[in-house]
Design the sequence.
């Protein structure tokens, strides 16, 4: 891999229409198989006290897609991210239950520490932004690169070894900062940025390593509307240039606008999956799993592209199927909950 | 600007109040320039003098009064005295070195003879040197209060019960430290000086002013609790408002601890001040002194009260809520600042009590008493799980017992090292402590 | 009582303090602490323990082998092992644990040093006199082996004990240590450390093995501590009680005064700290009658001032003299 350019991956659907066509053939059921998954997860659970914060049987994330993971607050999305990225450890399976397994690009990430996960090309951001406030924006960016061998203690004191690399990385950082409209701020302390700018910085920093997949935990939370637009643009751009995106969000508008696939989580479990239009349109799903009174105002959807609308229309049948399954599942969850109390 | 200057003034004033408070209450002791060897019914060692003291007991381990003891200093000076009712004798000496201690066999009552009549001991200044005589046979009327020889299992048992005692005393300090950590996130390194303060105040009230020890203890608790109140009102509360980070606050506590230690040294020198002057015999099932039993009882009662209060009272529940999630507690209408202030009052009061009891059962208090215990207290708190009060109790008992039992194998003064070893093992095996909980990320 | 005398005396003392080997050893130890605390955010409250390990490792080895370089190697290896022993159980955990374990471990080293059990090696409470281990160091000196040399009011031996030779070596070491710390912390490695100081989870999420970096930092800072320990005891003698908690607290005061996370902070801070200390001692000794404060009580008063000074410093100017408030070493 070169420093700035990702190699063209023949397996990656750079063409979004192609990708959506493939996803169109996927069953809209929780845990359904994808034609070309970059990430597969099996039987992962995490309990806090008595509560199962995460209890996911199976999930596949399509390579080259923007997949949204939605669910109400406390659904377990962040915990799920933590588990996948090595920031938390899943529970040991109890009595005969299957062992937790998850693979990224065919490589098992079970009991892999967080930094190693990042090194495999799966980089995450945090819900509560972790900009390194007492460092400059540029230093934040440089830290994101995984190419600088001057980070090794044995080489650090001899600057001629790493100076050349530093220039290359700096150029890459400037390019990214420019894209994220942060270039003028490069010498400012990250602590002086606005909340939205910090989110952008955190994302740009994560991209410094050219990850194969980026996992964004609520990238739009607390970002003002003007910035949100450009953030959405960035995310789509990322996908188009070869980075699979998995992101957590609870704002439905955002989700249906940019995602290719939506996974719904509630009380630790996957309760629905599907193309955004379908999952979105299903008010029962929304009410049951988001518990929020999602407003009906779908009017300002001028941004939604034509293809997408047609695709949604074509899949009413499958939607009904999904609805049924989801409703049945929801019922069983409710029953279990009733037992628990 | 004006506002900040005023607050700055208040914080400085607070530091001064803390220092001056100690200065005002305690008066400096003047160095004594007495004759080389004096005897009495008690002894306080200072830089210029040491104590040579002991007991004469018969084979039923009962005291033998009226026995004549003669001590001779390395330079040849000598002094003699008769043992008191409780069999004890005290000599204050102003010269370090090897002393001979002689028991006059002729002065002994009928029925007892000395096993050895001469002892040689090395006296250090500002220290207490023990020298005891065990006799063959027993005085008429003396009943057997225990086996004459001390078998190994009894040593083990003794260390165990001493450990239990130490554990309870540690717990008094540890629960406070843990509560402060739980509610504010602060690792308070000056907590040790609250223990020392308790010990010194007990010395001032009980010995210097001759107040009854129970009344003294109550006064000490009140005053140390007051010091906690003032600290939080004048230092920690304002600093929290200022938004000082926890690491910063922790370094502030380190500075405070250093300042207070030397305030103690300035006032009291490096001497050990006994709070109880009479020597006692070990009795009962635990084979410890009566004072130690009382201390254990007091600790258990106080700890039980604190536990009860934490579980069943509104304030206790509020405290646990604040420790659990401060923001949530505040949102649900709990006056967090008030809870924290009360936690400071209770914690420092408990540490003060711990200091009194520790000084009572361990021969006295000196300027580093608390600093020496701090390591064990921190080990106990970590072992139990930082921030959990009940964890602190369990941790303290374990640390107390293990530290004391370890003296069966290693030198006495290395028992504090055992605390560290336990700490490291715990951190390796179960970093969140016995009752602790993992933190969340993201 | 002559004011002129007071001032000459004060300024002579200032000068000897700035030349002093002890001051140099403080600077070196504070540089190590700066790598721990200033740049990595590791709250090591046991830097005196590292110094003591270095001092014992060096002095005991040289005492029995009369081999200077072997002594240095043993001291450094000792510090590395000590750092690993403290770091492995704690560096994956929250910062408080490291604080507690380092302060405790330093105390344990001191207690073991004081203990009679190992007295044949450590000398127990009496320690190891300088004469037992300083000869091989003196033998390396290009200056005359015996005799005194005077510059102005400062009259020290060429080579023996607390000598000009030791001063030259100590202050050259200070320069080398500052240069090394400069190269390290300005490198990408140092950038990772600063990142860890800010938020180690963020740095972890970027693919850096945080535990390894923290361990490296603890080891490197500890090595500076060990070197400081060697320098310190070459001027005096090994005494466990001289390197207790209080010394660590002094080092923090030096570091914070100059400015944590700055390259020259430890140097400037240590100078200022000692100048203030000397000023206090001289002035109290001169102005306050000994009926109010005895000679013995002056150090106690200065310690109280140091303690309160540390508090005020952290509260009102945590970035020190050279530091930048925005780049504060204190996390939260
Ligand atoms: N470290 C933790 N300790 C205790 N409970 C936790 C912890 N982390 C998460 N939880 C609980 O797990 C559940 C899921 O939380 P989270 O993953 O943050 O949800 P989301 O990101 O979907 O809002 C919540 O009930 C939360 O309170
Ligand atoms: Mg979340």
Sequence:
């Amino acid at each position: 891999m070169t420093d700035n350019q990702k190699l063209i991956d023949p397996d990656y659907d750079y063409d979004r229409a192609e990708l959506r066509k493939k996803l169109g053939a996927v069953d809209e059921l929780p845990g359904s198989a994808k034609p070309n998954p970059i990430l597969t997860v099996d039987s992962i659970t995490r309990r806090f006290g008595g509560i199962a914060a995460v209890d996911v049987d199976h999930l596949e994330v399509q390579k080259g897609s923007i997949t949204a993971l939605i669910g109400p607050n406390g659904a377990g999305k962040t915990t799920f991210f933590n588990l996948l990225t090595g920031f938390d450890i899943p529970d040991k399976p109890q009595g005969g239950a299957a062992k937790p397994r998850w693979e990224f690009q065919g490589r098992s990430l079970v009991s892999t520490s967080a930094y190693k996960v990042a090194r495999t090309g799966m980089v995450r951001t945090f819900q509560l932004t972790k900009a390194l406030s007492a460092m400059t924006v540029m230093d934040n960016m440089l830290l994101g690169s995984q190419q600088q061998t001057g980070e090794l203690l044995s080489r650090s004191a001899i600057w001629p070894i790493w100076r050349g690399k530093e220039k290359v990385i700096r150029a890459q950082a400037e390019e990214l900062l420019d894209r994220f409209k942060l270039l003028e701020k490069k010498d400012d302390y990250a602590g002086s940025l606005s909340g939205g700018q910090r989110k952008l910085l955190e994302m740009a920093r994560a991209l410094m390593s050219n990850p194969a997949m980026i996992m964004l935990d609520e990238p739009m939370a607390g970002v003002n509307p003007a910035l949100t637009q450009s953030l959405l643009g960035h995310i789509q751009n990322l996908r188009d240039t070869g980075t699979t995106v998995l992101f957590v969000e609870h704002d439905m508008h955002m989700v249906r606008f940019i995602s290719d696939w939506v996974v719904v989580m509630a009380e630790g479990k996957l309760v629905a999956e599907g193309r955004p239009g379908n999952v979105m349109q299903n008010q029962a799903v929304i009410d049951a799993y988001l518990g929020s009174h999602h407003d009906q105002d779908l009017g300002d959807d001028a941004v939604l592209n034509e293809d997408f609308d047609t695709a949604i229309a074509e899949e009413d049948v499958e939607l009904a199927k999904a609805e049924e399954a989801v409703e049945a599942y929801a019922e069983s969850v409710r029953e279990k909950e009733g037992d628990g109390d | 600007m004006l506002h900040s200057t005023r607050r700055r003034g208040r914080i400085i004033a607070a530091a001064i109040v803390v220092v001056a408070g100690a200065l005002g209450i305690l008066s400096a002791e003047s160095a004594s320039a007495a004759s080389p060897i004096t005897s009495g019914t008690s002894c306080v060692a200072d830089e210029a003098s040491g104590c040579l003291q002991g007991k004469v007991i018969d084979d039923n381990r009962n005291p033998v009064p009226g026995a004549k003891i003669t001590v001779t200093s390395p330079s040849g000076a000598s002094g003699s005295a008769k043992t008191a009712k409780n069999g004890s004798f005290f000599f204050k000496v102003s010269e370090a070195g090897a002393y001979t201690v002689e028991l006059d066999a002729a002065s002994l009552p009928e029925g007892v003879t000395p096993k050895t009549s001469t002892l040689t001991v090395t006296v250090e200044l500002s220290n207490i040197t023990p020298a005891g005589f065990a006799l063959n046979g027993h005085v008429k009327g003396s009943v057997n209060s225990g086996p004459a020889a001390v078998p190994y299992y009894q040593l083990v048992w003794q260390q165990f019960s001493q450990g239990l005692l130490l554990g309870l005393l540690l717990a008094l300090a540890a629960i406070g430290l843990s509560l402060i950590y739980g509610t504010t996130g602060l690792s308070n390194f000056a907590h040790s000086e609250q223990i020392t303060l308790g010990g010194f105040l007990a010395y001032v009230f009980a010995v210097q002013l001759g107040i009854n020890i129970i009344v003294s203890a109550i006064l000490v608790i009140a005053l140390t609790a007051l010091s906690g109140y003032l600290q939080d009102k004048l230092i920690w509360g304002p600093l929290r408002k200022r938004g000082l980070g926890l690491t910063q606050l922790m370094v502030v506590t380190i500075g405070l601890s250093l300042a207070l230690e030397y305030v103690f040294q300035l006032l009291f020198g490096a001497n050990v001040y006994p709070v109880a002057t009479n020597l006692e015999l070990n009795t009962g099932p635990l084979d410890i002194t009566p004072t130690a039993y009382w201390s254990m009882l007091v600790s258990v009662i106080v700890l039980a009260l604190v536990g009860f209060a934490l579980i069943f009272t509104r304030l206790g529940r509020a405290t646990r809520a604040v420790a659990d999630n401060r923001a949530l507690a505040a949102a649900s209408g709990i006056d967090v600042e008030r809870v924290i202030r009360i936690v400071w009052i209770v914690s420092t009061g408990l540490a003060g009590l711990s200091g009194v009891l520790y000084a009572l059962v361990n021969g006295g208090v000196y300027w580093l008493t608390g600093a020496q215990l701090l390591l064990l207290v921190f080990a106990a708190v970590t072992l139990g799980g930082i921030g959990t009060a009940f964890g602190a109790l369990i941790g303290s008992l374990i640390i107390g017992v293990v530290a004391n039992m370890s003296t069966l194998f290693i030198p006495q003064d290395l028992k504090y090292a055992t605390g560290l070893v336990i700490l490291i093992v715990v951190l390796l095996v179960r970093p969140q402590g016995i009752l602790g909980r993992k933190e969340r990320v993201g | 009582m002559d004011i002129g005398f007071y001032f000459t005396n004060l300024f002579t003392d200032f000068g000897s303090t700035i030349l002093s080997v002890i001051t140099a050893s403080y600077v070196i130890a504070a540089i190590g602490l700066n790598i721990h605390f200033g740049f990595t955010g590791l709250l090591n409250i046991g830097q005196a323990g590292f110094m003591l390990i270095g001092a014992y490792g060096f002095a005991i080895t040289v005492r029995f082998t009369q081999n200077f370089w072997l002594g240095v190697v043993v001291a450094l290896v000792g510090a590395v092992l000590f750092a690993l022993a403290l770091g492995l159980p704690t560096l994956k955990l929250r910062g408080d644990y490291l604080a507690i374990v380092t302060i405790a471990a330093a105390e344990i080293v001191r207690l073991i040093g004081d203990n009679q059990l190992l007295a044949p090696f450590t000398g127990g409470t009496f320690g190891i006199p300088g004469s037992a281990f300083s000869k091989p160091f003196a033998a390396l000196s290009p200056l005359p082996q015996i005799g005194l040399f005077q510059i102005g009011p400062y009259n020290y031996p060429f080579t023996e004990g607390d000598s000009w030779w030791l001063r030259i070596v100590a202050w050259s070491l200070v320069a080398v240590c500052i240069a090394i710390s400069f190269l390290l912390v300005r490198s990408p490695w140092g950038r990772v450390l600063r990142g860890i100081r800010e938020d180690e989870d963020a740095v972890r999420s970027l693919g850096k093995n945080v535990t390894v970096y923290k361990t490296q930092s603890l080891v490197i800072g500890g090595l500076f501590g060990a070197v400081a320990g060697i320098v310190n005891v070459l001027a005096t003698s090994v005494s466990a009680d001289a390197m207790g908690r209080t010394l660590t607290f002094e080092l923090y005061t030096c570091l914070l005064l100059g400015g944590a996370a700055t390259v020259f902070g430890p140097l400037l801070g240590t100078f200022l700290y000692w100048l203030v200390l000397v000023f206090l001692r001289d002035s109290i000794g001169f102005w306050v009658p000994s009926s109010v404060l005895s000679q013995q009580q002056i150090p106690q008063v200065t310690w109280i001032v140091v303690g309160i000074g540390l508090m005020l410093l952290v509260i009102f100017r945590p970035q020190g003299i050279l530091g930048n408030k925005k780049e504060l070493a204190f996390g939260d």
Summary: The CA atoms of residues 101 and 235 of chain C lie 29 Å apart. Strands of chain C lie at 148-151, 154-157. Residues 18-242 of chain C form one domain. The mean pLDDT of chain C is 91.
